[in-house]
Amino acid sequence: MAEYSQILGRLFWRKRRPLSTSTMAAPLTALADRIKAFGRELGFQRIGIAGVELSDAERHLEDWLRAGFHGTMGYMARHGRKRSRPAELVPGTLTVISVGMDYLPEPCQVARKRLEQPGIAFISRYALGRDYHKLLRHRLQRLAERIAAEIGPYGYRVFSDSAPVLEKALAAKAGLGWIGKHTNLIDRHAGSFFFLGEIYTDLPLPVDRPTPSHCGTCTACLDLCPTGAIVAPYRLDARRCISYLTIELHGPIPEELRAALGNRIYGCDDCQLVCPWNRYARLTEESDFLPRHGLDAASLVELFSWDEATFLRKTEGSAIRRIGYLRWLRNIAVALGNAPTEPTVLAALRARAGHPAELVREHVAWALRRHGGA
């Protein structure tokens, strides 16, 4: 682990004079300011520094797990408390650099209109472009290397939804926003449509102040959630969440929840789209996050016609590919069951009625029953 004297010596080596303990705070603050400037130059719209004490978040996570709200996401319970104790995941971690990058590719009102078109597939806006994981990790690595160029070698590790990390809790401590009642992070100046990433460091940097909550008495996200997954403010039952049902769940979607999915075939943005703070949401500056293959306005019938080779080709480099072809068909079959009864819809479903996979056949049969058993 780098010592204060080493860090300060690297920062101020040109002065060639010893630095006392009383002079440490100012150089470390200057380093933190430089890091934030580097981050903004690399395309992060928000950047802050958090400490590693997450006891409140740890209790919240353990309560959530005890309630079984994680469903089949067993990975949320693995790794013990490394998720909430950064220094146990990466020994020597003293502070965490937290960053945010905007991803919204279109105005919120355009996304809301897609939800009102039952024949059009709705895909969560974060997944319309290229998978963000590699882009964020690459930028974070560049930031980490930029810091090393400034001060010399130090201990660090970069993350972007790639390890047991409490990203939202750390971002909240770093002042990037507050965790809203829908459990997403909200920036009062930019809404909630942004990705998070972290650099765990052994640098004793000054930490930023958390942002106080500005949700007030608003319950818009709880009231609108199609499946009632937000069971209480700041408490999400993932087993009912459309994002979980369409992405994380491997088996059949519970029949009692299928109608509520509407035309949502990958994820759900409803709680964000209705949030008043997203009137300030900013459109992305990254071309990689813009829609590809017309997925922002593709018809359900068109997407249901894709064979597996087409699915793999058109989801290359996309987060969508992680669900695989069978769950892709499963999700679209449900959406077609919720679509208006039209010849093209019925023909598409009938064409898949004898699919080799039981997962697909069962959801197609349900969809056909929704159309009067046609």
Structural descriptors:
elongated; 2 domains; alpha+beta; 4-stranded antiparallel beta sheet; two-stranded parallel ribbon; 374 residues
Task: Describe the structure in your own words.
A hairpin with a 2-residue loop joins strand 8 (230-232) and strand 9 (235-236). The longest helix is centred in the middle third of the chain and has 20 residues, at 132-151. Helix 14 (324-338) runs parallel beside helix 16. This protein is 39% helix and 10% strand. It contains 16 helices and ten strands. It is α+β, with helices and mostly antiparallel strands. It has two domains: 4-298, no CATH class; 299-374, no CATH class.
Overall 3D shape: elongated
Q: Please indicate the percent range of residues in DSSP E strands (runs of 2 or more).
A: 5-15%
The parts where pLDDT drops under 50 for at least 5 residues are: 12-22
Q: What structural category arises from helix and sheet content?
A: alpha+beta
Q: What is the succession of H and E elements? A: HHEHHEHEHEHEEEHEEHHEHHHHHH
The number of helices is 16
Helix content: 25-40%
Instruction: Kindly give the count of domains.
Output: 2
Order of strands in the sheet with the most strands? 1-2-7-4
